[in-house]
Design goal:
about 180 residues, alpha+beta, about 45% strand, RNA Polymerase Alpha Subunit, Chain A, domain 2, ten-stranded mixed beta sheet
Length: about 180
């Protein structure tokens, strides 16, 4: 058995080296397709004024950061980082009864959009909590904590302004019981 292994041993090593070199050349010439996942890509919200101008308030409940799967030529894909991925959600495309907006993803490298790379978001939409935005005026009360230092006396307590207007989602504003200056 030992004789069979070591017979023409130099030719066996030479053929293994040739195979490795040939494989390396083919991989570099043909630039195979490869892919990987990048996590924690922030989603930019576009045209937010389309909701706020109509008197709505919104909060992102799901999809503010997403994962994307990138595939393409190995020579291009290996240089892509999370900062090169642009994920956007256009709020002007939201429909009357929907609470989500589709996410569009592209790869921008050195100011140019890469077209030979396929980008697939794992999360396809941003989920929003949309509410009516209201403004309510509240009187401001004052609360004094502690005592005056030795040799000093608090004689007069004033507050300015005496009322404030607060704008926000209707459920949040309705939960405000009082406004205090402490």
């Amino acid at each position: 058995m030992k004789e069979k292994i070591f017979r023409n041993f130099s030719l066996k090593i030479l053929s293994a080296l040739c195979a490795i070199i040939l494989w390396t050349v083919i991989v570099n010439i043909y630039d195979p397709t490869t892919g990987f996942t990048i996590s924690n890509v922030p989603v930019q919200l576009l045209n937010t004024e389309s909701l706020t101008d109509k008197g709505y308030s919104y909060e992102v409940t799901d999809g503010s950061k997403i994962s994307v799967y990138i595939s393409g030529p190995k020579s291009v894909v290996t240089d892509i980082k999370a900062a090169d991925i642009v994920a956007t959600a256009n709020l002007s495309e939201i429909t009357a009864f929907a609470d989500y907006v589709d996410i569009e993803v592209k790869v921008v490298k050195d100011g140019k959009t890469l077209t030979n790379v396929e980008v697939t978001p794992r999360t396809t939409a941003v989920k929003l909590n949309i509410e009516n935005r209201i403004t309510q005026q509240f009187d401001v009360s004052m609360e004094v904590n502690g005592t005056a230092a030795d040799g000093y006396v608090v004689t007069k307590q004033t507050i300015s302004p005496t009322s404030v207007k607060i704008t926000g989602p209707s459920t949040t504003i309705s939960n405000i019981a009082q406004v205090k200056a402490i």
